[in-house]
Structure formats: C-alpha cells, structure tokens
Amino acid sequence: MLDLTPGLIAILVACALMCGLAKTALPGLACIPVAILAAVMPTRPSTALMLLMLLTGDLLAIWTYRKDADWKVLRGLFPPVAVGVAIGAIFLAKVSNQVMKVSIGIIILALTALTLGLIWYARRTGRDLATSMSTSLPARLFYGSLSGFTTMAANSGGPVVSLYFLASRFEVRRFMGTQAWFFFIVNLLKLPFSAGIGLIDRQMLLIALCLAPLVLGAALLGRWWIGRIDNKIFDPIVTALTIVSAVFLLL
C-alpha cells in the first residue's frame, strides 16, 4: 500500500492540475507530472495513477474538441500505435524505472531535433512539409509506433504526437481536437494492458477518484485559455514543453 504523506498528497494535487491543463491547453505538459510521480512513487503505481488521471482529463478534452478532430489523420496513426503499445507493455514489464525514463527521454529529445530540423529545412526550401507529413506512410508508421511505445511505457506519448502535429502545421483547435481523441482512444487501449500486468489496484482507483475534480477543474481552465491563443504563441510553447518534458525524464 502507498503511504500517503502530506508531502506526497501535495505532489499528487500539483500533478493532477498539470494533467488537466495538458489535456485542453498545454500538450506535452503531462510528461512533467509523469517524471515527478516516477521520482516519488514506485514505477507501477505511478504509471497506473497517471493513466487514470489522464483518462479523466480525456473525457473533458473530447467533449471540448468534439468537432475539431482530423479523423483521416487519426485513422492513419492507430495501426502503428497499437503495435507500439504492445511493444511498450513488454518493455514496461522487463526494464527498470530508470532505464525506462532515460530511454524515453532520449527518444523524445532526438525526435524533437529531427522534427525541428525538418521544419527548418522545409521553410528554407519552400517545401510543403504539412502535406507530406500528413500523407506520408513512413511518417505515420514512425511517429505512430513511437507514440504508442512511449505512452504505454511511461505515459509520455504526448511529446511524440505533438511533434507530428507541429510538423503537419495543424492550427490550434485542430491540433488539440485531434490530440484529444487520439489519447482518449489510446489510453482506453492501454487500460486492459495495464490491468493485465497488475498496474491498477483498488488504492490507485480511489486516489484517482479523489483527484478527478482537480483534473477536471484544471482542464476547464485550459479550455478557457486556449480560445485566446494563436499558433505564433502556441507552437513555441508546445516545442518548449516537449524539450522540458524530455529533460525531466532524464533526471
């Protein structure tokens, strides 16, 4: 059983608020509470609790952006994501917490550098990167499988998907709507895997239930804020949070 000290409760509250904001306004932010919980809790309980909190935020996110998802893009991503989730479940069951975090942190940093390099090259040469990313089978296989792997192994798929949508030049609501539905479906897919390897128990369910109002409250705040931002501000914030989240995983 997890010992709920006052310090740990305060950390759980902060993580719940960040999860809510990540779902409706700040994609990539969720990796920070992932890293924090992994540092203060055993790996399995922290992974289970994050999944339950993220699913709570997903419910409000899909309602908020119910008309904004790009289903053509989603249909292309889900097959490689399913493969990545299965590989991530095996990885999670076999490796230590530190190996898991460092591996995913390195993947995210490398992918950030690759994506920013592609964006820079496209701007310099005048290529239509948005169209080529959204229609390219190798891109969907690459980003999709990595997002499935990282989200199953450490609930850290947000940065990978964010980078794919940044390279595809999604405007803000299309970005948030597509991501909201993507992670709602992916997190539902992860649920039986997590239960099957013993990650979710009664205590984690009760803690997640207590934290649910905080997750939803922060998500409502994010929904209000996102209507007041455009891509010139949104894209750099997403990129910065992606880098910060990777660094947190490496610590």
TrEMBL record:
It comes from Varibaculum cambriense. Pfam families: TauE (PF01925). It comes from the Bacteria. It is a multi-pass membrane protein. InterPro entries: TM_pro_TauE-like, TSUP. The keyword Hydrolase does not apply. Belongs to the 4-toluene sulfonate uptake permease (TSUP) (TC 2.A.102) family. Its main location: membrane. It is found in: Cell membrane. GO terms for cellular component: plasma membrane. This is Probable membrane transporter protein. The chain crosses the membrane at residues 6-36, 48-65, 77-95, 102-122, 142-167, 179-200, 206-226, 233-250. Keywords: Cell membrane, Membrane, Transmembrane, Transmembrane helix, Transport.
